[in-house]
Each structure stands twice: as structure tokens, then as C-alpha cells.
Amino acid sequence: MGSLPQITWTVIGAGPAGLCAIGNLLSSGIREDQVVWIDPHFNSGNLSDVPEVPSNTKVQLFLKFFTACPYLNERAKEIESGSPNDNPFKSMRDLEQEIGCPLSYAAAAVTATTQCILNRIKNRKAMVTSVEKSDKQNEWTITLEDGEKLQTERIVFCTGSKARELNIHRDYPNIQCIPLQDGFSATKLKSIINEKDHVAVLGTSHSGVLLLRNLCTILPEEHGLKVASVECVSRKPLLYAEYMDGWIKNDNTGLKLAAADWAREYYDKSCHPLLRKITLSQDEQKTYKELLPNCTKIVYAVGYDRVKLPQIIYNGVESNVTHDGKCGKLKDENGKEIDGLYGLGIAFPELRKYPNGVEEWAVGMWKFMDYGMRVIPSWS
Question: What is the pTM of this model?
Fold first, then answer.
């Protein structure tokens, strides 16, 4: 692709949040020739890495992600008209709508829509190394990994997150750390663990419970592999989402759907023969010293961290940005808004206040879209 003229909007990242940003910009009056999309893969972001994971989102909300946004809805119709009997939207409509589904369904829809859009707008399949601007300039300069430079007025970072890993096991050479992403896949786990393994799982959020489900139920029942034991370490009791009248209590922090069903059946009743529950005491090191010498594998399900952003240089100074969870604008270390920079998605989610007064970071495909539809038109 040839050189790009000066552009109005650049979206960095092509997972669900990046697709949401592109869709809402182009639904709000921005022309296709005013936008450029940058991503190293254009393959639905982290969704494509976890196809076996059962969602904590109902199927109907995955479909609503596309139908609620006019531009994405048009692209989805194009995809369906081109292949009426074999497309990711029909596949999702054929599922039961009030339950979850493997994330492979959502990933397929995001990827297909992304590829459709790439035929219509400017794009670069690359990593961004830096963005730079001064108050004397009207545009940001984006530098790509190959040295190419692009000029743009505004940038939306939809750069995602990665699983947080701790080093609690560092003093125990007998323990192998399994990446959380691999733990989500029973197929991958089968090639990593064996029947002699004692596996420690740290954390009992949605991710942690899905790990327990894989180790205790999916592997033995579907792959014929039973580990020696599963040691689940947590700081507090499980938290469940509660469906209230028109809203969800613990919407982003509580267990839902398949994870909640498994936890109620096995974790809460303490009835699974492989599973041992361990609650950390005030002396956490004492607990680990008693537990870890007997473990051979460990998986950390202790949250996610924003992936490292490109270098952001504003007025000659590198900035470590924060974000405003009410409007999506990025700020410098002093809390001052940085002109022309915005964020969306798991790296920059909405801070949503619920009817009970509790504020939570709203994470999920539909939540990104709901937030994006409200704030992106105001960015222009």
C-alpha cells in the first residue's frame, strides 16, 4: 500500500474494542477515507487466542455488538449476503441466545467484520513504536516499526491487556508456571500436565474458576486425564453476579454462566475429589511455604495488566498516560487531558456506577460497544 495522506483518525488495535472504535467513528459522520486502522495481525485481538473459553456474555449480546452500531450492522449484512448459509452471524443466531458460548464464535464474527472493513479503509499491518506531538502542532506523528511515519489529528488506543504473572514460585525449582492463556485450553493443558502433577491455581475470579473447571472436570471427562490434585488458593469467598430488576449486581466482578454453574456445583459444595480449597491467612508466606514444595505446576489467575503502550511523547516529554473512565480521554501524569488521545476497551474501560452506588470497570464486548456509542460521538 502506498503512502498515506494526513488523516483525521487513527485506531490502534483490532480486537473487539478497536472494531467498536472504527464502527462508531464511521457511524458518527467520519468518512472512510479519514480513518486509518493499525494492528500487527487484524485477527480479533486476544479473542483468537482463547477459542475454547466459555463466555460470561450471553450470545444475544455478542450479536447486539454488531447490530447496535449502524456501520458494523451494514458490514455484517454484507457478510451474510455473500454467504447466507455459512457465516459467523448465522452460527451465533443458531445458538441458544440466553446462555454463553465458546469465544471462538465471537472471534469469528470480529475477524470476518474486520476483514470486510479492511477492504474499505486505509490500514497498516504493523506495530506502532511511538506517537509524538507538541502544542505547536495540529497533528500527531505516528512511527511504525519499519520507520514509516503517519500524520493524524486524533488517536484511539485499543491496545488490550495481558494476564498478570507473579513470581511466588521463583524459589521452588520443582514448579513449572503455566501461562493463563494455556490454562484456558483443555487441549493445550493435556500436552503440558500429567497424572502425577499437583497443580496450584492462584485466584478465584472468572478466570480462576474456568481453570478449575478445566483441571477438575473437562480434562478428566473429555480428555481422560486426571491430575493428582488441584490446590486452589484464594483471599476471599467467591463472588457471583446477581440479576436484579434491570441491572446486574457484581456485573464485572461476579461469576456468570458456565463458570458460576460449575462453582456452585463443585466449589461451594467442596465435593470435587481433586479440589482442595486454601484461603490465604495474614501470613501469606507461611501458606505458600507449606503448599508449594508439594506442587509441580502453578497458574496465576490474578487479573490483567494493560499491555505496554507505544512511546507517547507530548511537548518533548515522554508521558505515562492514565484515562478518564467517564469519557475515554487520556491524561498525563498530572491529570491533564492530552489533546487528541483517547482509549477504549479492556486497557481503558468505562468506570460505571451501578444503582447500588458501587463503581466497577466495565469490561466485555457489549460493554465496550455501549460505552463507545455514548462517548465516541463527543470526541469529534
Answer: 0.95
